[in-house]
Design brief:
The chain is mainly α. It has one domain. It is 73% helix and 5% strand. It is built from 11 helices and 2 strands; from the N terminus they run ααααααααααββα. The chain has a two-stranded antiparallel sheet with strand order 1-2. The longest helix is centred in the middle third of the chain and has 48 residues. The radius of gyration is 20 Å and the shape is globular. The two termini are 16 Å apart.
């Protein structure tokens, strides 16, 4: 029951406070990531050497922090540890932050302020926002809400429940490394490969649980069909199932051509239905929120049942 209380408290803190505007630990970690990468990846290397250096950098940046989290878990009493877990899980979650970014794009689209919508969507996607038209902006924002719901919300909850404080810390650090190094360009193609693959492994099961959550809460049959038929066509093994199920749940079409700094990417089509609009962005946000409350309800019911069985009642 303590784990359920930790999850609920962290979610409520995120809802009330949002992400810290200053002194967020992940910002400091990001600075460390940039320093280590500059030291180890400043000179051109052979592919094998670059992969080894990427592995070393990942270990240097994650193992000390995860080891510290393991140590805290071993020495703190249950209630002191629970307080730390609430704070760390709150910092790992980004429900309100995700929602605020999505709402900002949707509001600009509804006001027909396309330049503002481009600026807002450019804060959450890596494609060239200044080349997006109105439907392209809505597609990009909807995809971001669905995919980041898996990465920044459900995966954090999953790894806390599976492995406690070390689990959520490890996942969040690796996910940050993937966000910073997971590019397929000349600089990071090999150096960032280990972090990207490790992130794929850590997110494999949470992504599929997220896809199942989207399907249950939306147009279930269509979501499952899109997940099964389209999920594997995406270049990411985790984003594909999540966005395919989410698009089906919302009855919209995602994917398709999109402008990136490296050129136009002709991405597979996901989902079925009309092109997303501002309302689709808001619907994706609501889907994530409802999914969080569904998870919390299931956790509470499971903990209550376990308590009844343990007491012989």
């Amino acid at each position: 029951m303590i784990s359920v209380a930790v999850c609920l408290t962290a979610v409520l803190l995120d809802r009330w406070l949002g992400e810290p505007r200053r002194w967020h630990p992940l910002v400091g970690f990001g600075h460390m990531v940039a320093i280590v990468e500059k030291r180890l990846n400043s000179q051109p290397q052979r592919p094998c050497q670059s992969v080894v250096l990427g592995c070393l950098a990942t270990a240097l940046l994650t193992l000390p922090v995860v080891s510290f989290a393991l140590g805290l878990s071993a020495i703190l009493d249950a209630w002191a540890l629970a307080i730390i877990e609430v704070l760390v899980l709150y910092l790992a979650l980004s429900i309100r932050g995700l929602s605020e970014h999505g709402f900002a794009v949707a509001q600009a689209l509804k006001a027909k302020n396309i330049p503002m919508a481009r600026r807002q969507v450019g804060r959450i996607v890596s494609r060239k926002a200044d080349e997006l038209d109105e439907p392209g902006i809505a597609v990009a924002a909807t995809e971001s809400m669905l995919e980041n719901g898996a990465d920044a919300v459900f995966a954090s909850l999953f790894w806390y429940l599976v492995a406690g404080l070390p689990g959520v810390v490890c996942h969040r650090l690796v996910n940050t490394l993937d966000a910073m190094w997971g590019y397929r360009d000349e600089r990071f193609l090999y150096f960032g490969r280990f972090a990207a693959r490790l992130d794929d492994v850590l997110n494999w099961l949470p992504a599929r649980l997220t896809a199942m959550t989207y399907a249950v809460l939306g147009k279930t049959r269509l979501a499952v069909r899109c997940w099964v038929q389209q999920g594997a066509t995406w270049d990411s093994p985790n984003a594909g199932p999540v966005m395919a199920a989410g698009a089906g749940a919302l009855r919209v079409t995602l994917g398709g051509p999109a402008p990136y700094p490296t050129g136009i990417h002709n991405r597979p089509v996901l989902g079925q239905g009309p092109t997303p609009t501002a309302d689709s962005i808001n619907a994706a946000i609501r889907l994530v929120h409802r999914g969080v409350w569904l998870w919390l309800a299931i956790l509470f019911a499971a903990a209550l049942l376990a308590n009844v069985l343990a007491t012989g009642g």
